[in-house]
Amino acid sequence: MSTRIPHYMIVGGGITGLSAAFYLKKRLESAGAPFRISVVEKSSTFGGKIHTIEREGFVIEKGPDSFLARKRPIIDLAYDLGLEHELTGTNPGAKKTYIVRQGKLHRMPPGLVLGIPTQMTPFMKTGLISPLGKMRAALDLILPKRDLSADESLGHFLERRLGKEVLQRIVEPLLAGIYAGDTFKLSLKATFPQFRAMEQKHRSLILGMMASRKNVSEESAHLPSAVRNSVFVTFKKGLQTLVSGLEEALKTVDLRNGVGVVSIRKMGQHQAEVIFEDGHSEMVDGVILTTPTYQAAQILADLPAANQLKKIDYISVANVIMAFDRKDIPFELDASGFLVPKTEGRTITACTLTSAKWLHTAPDGKVLLRCYIGRAGEQEWPEWSDEQLVSKARHDLRELLGLKAEPLFTDVTRLMHSMPQYPVGHLEQIAQFREELAAAMPHVLIVGAGFHGVGLPDCIRQGKEAAWQLADLIQN
Ligand code: FAD
Questions:
Q1: CB within 8 Å of 324: residues ≥ 6 apart
Q2: Of 45, 79, 163, 399, which has the highest C-beta tally within 10 A?
Q3: How far is the centre of ligand 1, averaged over its atoms, from the C-alpha of 238 (Å)?
């Protein structure tokens, strides 16, 4: 008599899905349990938002380019895959960051952490904030904490602690790189719960952030020594290294690309039916769904609670890569880049001096820049052609940096509906959704950037947690 081998399916082959598959395989193997795992990915390649290309000796990231070193899950995964020697940190000679104010670049005062001042002297000297704005920010030191159990918007929280100027001129442009969002619509609890915890513990956000800086050396103890002094880390040949490492580790698994899932339905007590775009269907014993939430809402359309997922908006962003000869660059390459606040009315939201920040990304004598376009309230760009995007980005670089040279080449990436916006009340809505999903389909789990953190480390953590949860469900 043959024993049926349980079949588990991961839907979506981005970093969340690949991590889920990796940790599920690891866990079931160590338990000695029989299993079959399939990863099904709609597009032609794995990695989702991660997309590195090599061109004429440049290493070009078309999606994410690095991650926060202090976040454990991605470093642990690098060790698990034997890739820790491939990690690299930022160039110590390019630590400065600039912010545009009235068409001029101002150095971001040293000591800002996520835009919150932790050193008062450089903050008090900056030309980015008016004397009144600085006094308003300093009020954070004495303002009482607000005892709120309910969520509030990130913008509202930061404005009441630090005032409008710091919010608009420093914090918002900085955070735009992570969410591209409207801070007055983003949930504080879901995006920066640490800010809220600091207010509760220290009353002042500035004092809380200063206290948290004391633990920085402990936070980097897990890092390989070569990257211990870097806040951001990536891989020498780009983030694709991580995707290739996962694909290699999963080569005994059924990895399928070019296969879209259209629907998942409950079948009996312990199984689900996964229906594919080509019409065929498969019965599985467990599913981890990792697509963006608007796609998950369609896949789970039979479940009334799936409507909750439609409340999570996604912003579209583009980036324009430009390569130059070093001799054509009329400015110092001693900074990681600059940010452009919304109030400046420009097309680009930021520019990374990529080859200054990451020395491995350009051959000798060449320079790589990356301009970002699109954020909440600036969503007209998808109507522009690639040529228009390049021309508008070059116009901004000409005015802000005096850069007139013709690029050696350009590369435009359009990331439509790519940045999830956690609305106020997000965590409560998601908890309620999960409860209903668990009641209706206990072996279908759902995780990914649309839920509990958009950064790569958070996606890996979510994938791993879902893998462990599924393994526990199956084995009990
Ligand atoms: P995705 O990468 O979106 O993967 C989901 C996968 O599901 C996709 O491959 C998709 O094709 C597939 N799929 C969709 N529908 C179906 C279907 N019906 N059937 C089967 N498969 C389907 N984070 C950082 O930490 N550092 C950074 O520097 C950084 N920069 C970023 C820059 C940009 C421009 C963007 C957009 C994001 C950035 N992020 C960064 C965030 C991070 O890249 C993402 O949050 C993360 O990669 C999302 O991973 P995921 O697996 O959850 O989702």
A1: 366, 367, 368, 369, 403, 405, 407, 408
A2: 163
A3: 16
- Mutation probe of ligand 1 site: the residue of 11, 49, 240, 413 with most atoms within 8 A of C-beta: 49
Three-state DSSP at 379 gives coil
3-state secondary structure of 245: helix
- Token pair of 403 as six digits: 């850069």
Q: What is the pLDDT of residues 213-241, one digit of tens each?
A: 766 666 677 788 878 888 899 999 999 99
- The 10s digit of each residue's pLDDT in 171-211 is 999 887 789 999 999 999 999 999 999 999 999 999 999 99
The angle at the Cα of 27, spanning 23 to 29, to the nearest 5 degrees, equals: 115
Q: 8, 250 in Cβ contact below 8 A?
A: no
- Angstrom distance (rounded) from CA 42 to CA 45: 8
ipTM of the complex: 0.99
Residue nearest to atom 4 of ligand 1 (CA): 14
Closest protein CA for atom 2 of ligand 1? 48
Q: Which two tokens stand for residue 267?
A: 């079948």
Q: Output the six-digit token pair for 225.
A: 């020594």
> Among candidates 355, 284, 474, 420, which has minimal Cα distance to 65?
355
Q: CB of 87 within 8 A of CB of 227? A: yes
Question: Which two structure tokens, joined as six digits, stand for 241?
Answer: 């290294």
Q: Assign 441 to helix, strand or coil.
A: coil
